[in-house]
Write a structure and sequence with these properties.
- The chain is mostly helical.
- About 65% of the residues lie in helices and about 5% in strands.
- Among the domains are: about 60 residues, Serine Threonine Protein Phosphatase 5, Tetratricopeptide repeat (Alpha Horseshoe), CATH 1.25.40; about 55 residues, Serine Threonine Protein Phosphatase 5, Tetratricopeptide repeat (Alpha Horseshoe); about 220 residues, Rossmann fold; about 120 residues, Glycogen Phosphorylase B (Rossmann fold, 3-Layer(aba) Sandwich), CATH 3.40.50.
- The termini are far apart.
Length: about 900
């Protein structure tokens, strides 16, 4: 077939796909055509616009670069190419291009070049150079008309709304309409909605009327003021009946008002202004509202005629996600990605579907990494990958965030998480150095960035410094809603509820219509906390409680202890045990032993219930679950109770518990998430004894047990005081001290004499207050389990000769256990002693990394990874020595168990 005929057919097909909204197919056809007709600028531009519709910014940048190379004097391709580089956040490539594009060096384009250079400096975090460029450009003579606004535009685009405002207000009167437009946008970015509205209204009677109405509509929508947003969008349609944004938003608002008929009529009359996929998505939502499931029919009819239209497939998948058909949505996205594996919108949607479906971290991480490969500087994707890595292994997450802040140095959330995870890995000084660097990179000239730095300081554990910075930010911009909202969050985290309350009152004055969900939650916590403290200290409770000074939750803990009275009625019976999880840890093994012992007390014994905060198998929280079940105990999972509405159910049945529930809800979220469902269990089960394992659980469960009137509370501490940053919660000491003052019987135990004395010193308790209760071991059962499997069989399974010495390890593959150090030692020992083998039992996020290290050393045949094994004793018996490489331990069960089997 002649080449020109094939090319013409590809072009025809490309144009048809472009018209039908199948942008990936259009782009593929354009690429085929351009391989033969590379100089066809019209086809190249159409390919760029198809890539724009897909938001595939690297592809967009490539096509506009080709058009620039074809005509280096034209400014249009330059603008589009730079815009695409900015969208993909590829600031290095943008700088390189702006330096070499000769057209930008011409006087007539100097202002545009300056704006580009300024934006690049700001996004790369070089504030001193950005300020210098701004000053130099303004001092140049003559100053071109519009230059100051161009500079302000760059500052605004980079998120520096205050700096943009200052610049815009100095622009000459000749720029008045554009100046007002930029000022209004900056005010909108600052959420100064009233000031933005006042600035925009004079523009409604001039050539910028449509833009002004759109801005007013967007601002109203951001405030959830749908009636005002609708009014402005309808005004836009009076000027332009087919305006795409106005049509789409009015259809969306009609659907939100449960008026699908209006939405459908609007889409039928004016929907051609929208892309086919967007039109179909809105039409399907409206149809589903009329009849559940009818939205499918909309997409199925379209896809029968266009079965390979990827844009429609993705829109259908989005609709399926909205109606919770997650498996179908995922399958459809996977089909789209087979045809267009680099489609950014599809990759992002796959991430969202996997998150909704609670897919494994590994699956979510693979999806996030695939999207990040397309947009390597995207702060949101960097944050997604970093968060998933940190969930698997905090050290790995911290290391990733350190690389992420180099790729996106203007992202406060990346800086914050980098500092937080470094701090939680016990690298305190490094975390604080990073916080200092964040101040240098983000700057302190803007109230918003100063608030971001305060947030980062909070993550570094410097709460007093964070409070000072946020106070400075609020003083600098007392009407900036975002800054004041951040001040509320920081004050709540620091325990300064009274200061948080004053900021909430300021927010109410600035936006009297409504509070955001986050601020409403903070206000509810403050109100409940103030009520509880007032109830403990005064006979009469005011209708509107006054702010209470002092530190929270400490004041609230004291109030709970003071107000709670033990219920010693004979109707109470049973033992309710609470622990964090049943993962592969020493404390978790002791919980398991305790449950086995409690369940084996013979007929007539009190009932025993085990509550576990989480049994999530994806987090390894179910390691001992089967052993507990084999003892006849079915654990209750608090996380499932929380999601299942257990608290609402209790209040519906017994409204008298509302005050206690409000009080527990006022606690910090990390405590309340445990305390609230546990309170429900305490009320329903009416136990005689509550037994709480480890520090955070002791405080959370203890508050719930006191409010529920449990007569005896046993607090089981482990090792020494929780002073390490990795485990530290500043509220623990105050919680323990409040529990010690409870009118009921509170027993505190520790598993060593040294640990007991250390807790007493930490809490200021008299000697002997903390009792010693040693770890329990069933040595006979351990040795029976070890003897049940011949050592020779396990060695043969791994290819270890019967007489070979074996260096062993049993651990979770996480940073605190340092399996990499174990492997390093095993490699060195194996090289020194040719017949020695290594055997490590366990699993975790670092396993593959350690296995790869052993493989690179060429010792995979002599250092063996057995994975997670239960029972573990036969594997320990197959070792000649056990080596534990942890950073820190309490009293490691694994060492005692190894010694019990004669293994040093």
């Amino acid at each position: 077939m002649p080449q020109d005929f094939t090319g013409a057919r590809s072009l025809t097909r490309a144009l048809a796909c472009l018209q039908g909204g199948d942008y990936p197919a259009a782009l593929r056809c354009f690429e085929v055509f351009l391989t033969a007709e590379a100089e066809n600028t019209a086809a190249r531009e159409a390919a760029a616009r198809a890539a724009e519709r897909m938001e595939d910014w690297p592809q967009v940048a490539r096509h506009w670069l080709e058009l620039h190379n074809a005509d280096p004097t034209a400014i249009g391709p330059v603008r589009r190419h730079v815009a695409a580089l900015f969208k993909s956040q590829d600031w290095l490539a943008a700088k390189s291009f702006c330096d070499r594009a000769t057209v930008l060096h011409e006087n007539r384009h100097r202002m545009e070049a300056t704006r580009y250079r300024l934006r690049i400096l700001l996004e790369r975090g070089d504030l001193p150079a950005a300020e210098k460029l701004t000053t130099t450009a303004r001092q140049d003579a003559p100053v071109p008309s519009g230059l100051i606004l161009a500079l302000a535009e760059a500052w605004l685009a980079a998120g520096y709304a205050c700096r943009a405002l200052v610049l815009a207000r100095t622009a000459p009167p000749s720029d008045d309409p554009e100046r007002a437009w930029l000022i209004a946008r900056a005010l909108g970015q600052k959420q100064a909605w009233q000031a933005a509205r006042i600035t925009l209204e004079p523009l409604l009677n001039g050539p910028m009327a449509t833009r002004a109405r759109l801005a007013l509509a967007r601002n109203a929508a951001a405030q959830k003021d749908e009636a005002t947003a609708r009014r402005h969008y309808e005004a836009v349609r009076q000027d332009a009946p087919d305006h795409p944004e106005a049509v789409a938003q009015l259809a969306r608002l009609a659907i939100a008002d449960r008026d699908p008929g209006q939405a459908i009529a609007l889409l039928e009359d004016h929907g051609k202004a929208l892309t086919p996929a967007r039109r179909a998505h809105l039409r399907a939502r409206a149809a589903h509202l009329q009849k559940p499931g009818a939205g499918r029919e909309v997409f199925e009819a379209l896809l029968r005629s266009q079965p390979r239209n990827i844009a429609l497939q993705i829109a259908f998948a989005r609709h399926l996600r909205e109606i919770a058909a997650l498996e179908e949505a995922r399958a459809l996205v996977d089909t789209a990605l087979e045809a267009a594996p680099e489609h950014v919108e599809a990759l992002r949607l796959r991430m969202a579907i996997l998150r909704d479906a609670n897919a494994s971290d590994d699956l979510q991480l693979a999806a996030a990494e695939a999207a990040l490969a397309q947009l390597p500087q995207d702060a949101g994707l960097l944050h997604a990958v970093g968060g998933l890595l940190a969930r698997k292994d905090r050290d790995a997450g911290a290391a990733f965030y350190r690389s992420a802040i180099e790729r996106a140095p203007r992202s406060a959330v990346l800086w914050r998480n980098c500092v937080y995870h470094t701090w939680m890995c016990n690298r305190v000084e490094e975390a604080r150095r990073l916080a200092d660097q964040a101040l240098e990179r983000l700057g302190a000239a803007e109230a918003a960035t100063l608030a971001d730095v305060a947030w980062i300081e909070q993550a570094a554990g410097r709460l007093e410094r964070a409070l000072r910075l946020i106070d400075r930010a609020v003083r600098a911009e007392p009407s900036d809603i975002r800054t004041i909202s951040r001040a509320v969050d920081i004050c709540m985290e620091a325990g300064s509820y009274a200061r948080a309350w004053s900021h909430l009152e300021m927010l109410d004055r600035l936006q009297p219509e409504r509070r955001s969900p986050g601020m409403a939650g903070a206000a509810a916590r403050c109100t409940a906390a103030f009520r509880a403290v007032g109830r403990a200290s005064a006979s009469a409770q005011p209708m509107v409680p006054a702010p209470v000074p002092g530190r929270f939750p400490d004041r609230l803990f004291d109030a709970i202890a003071a107000c709670s009275r033990p219920n010693l009625s004979p109707g109470r019976s049973g033992i309710l045990v609470l622990t964090s999880n049943l993962g592969a840890g020493g404390a978790e093994r002791q919980v398991t032993y305790s449950m086995q012992g409690l369940s084996d007390r013979g007929p007539g014994a009190e009932p025993v219930t085990l509550a576990v905060n989480s049994l999530d198998p994806l987090q390894g929280n179910d390691f001992f679950l089967e052993e507990v079940r084999s003892a006849g105990i079915a654990p209750v999972e608090l996380a499932a109770m929380h999601q299942g509405g257990a608290i609402r159910g209790l209040l519906a049945e017994a409204p008298q518990h509302a005050e206690a529930v409000r009080t527990l809800s006022a606690l910090p979220p990390k405590i309340a998430r445990v305390a609230l469902p546990f309170y429900v269990l305490c009320v329903r089960n009416r136990p005689r004894v509550v037994h709480l394992w480890q520090d955070a659980i002791a405080v959370a469960g203890g508050m719930a047990a006191m409010l529920a009137g449990v007569g005896r509370i046993v607090l089981c501490t482990r090792s020494t005081r929780p002073a390490e940053i990795r485990r530290y919660r500043r509220f623990l000491r105050a919680g323990y001290r409040a529990l010690d003052r409870y009118a009921g019987d509170v027993v505190i135990v520790n598993n060593s004499a040294n640990g007991a004395r250390d807790y007493e010193n930490w809490l200021g308790l008299p000697e002997g207050r903390v009792q010693v209760f040693y770890n329990g071991y069933d040595f006979a059962a351990m040795n029976d389990r070890a003897a049940a499997v011949p050592q020779g069989r396990l060695r043969a399974e791994l290819g270890i000769p019967p007489a070979a010495p074996v260096l062993g390890g049993v651990m979770r593959f996480s940073s605190v256990k340092r399996p990499d150090l174990w492997a390093k030692v095993a490699i060195a020992a194996a090289r020194r002693q040719p017949d020695l083998h290594g055997l490590i039992v366990g699993d975790g996020p670092m396993r593959q990394e350690v296995m790869d290290h052993v493989a690179r050393a060429g010792l995979s045949d002599r250092i063996h990874f057995a994975g997670r094994r239960s029972p573990v004793e036969p594997w320990m018996k197959a070792m000649d020595m056990l080596f534990l490489s942890s950073v820190t331990e309490g009293l490691p069960n694994v060492l005692i168990e190894a010694q019990a089997m004669g293994r040093p």
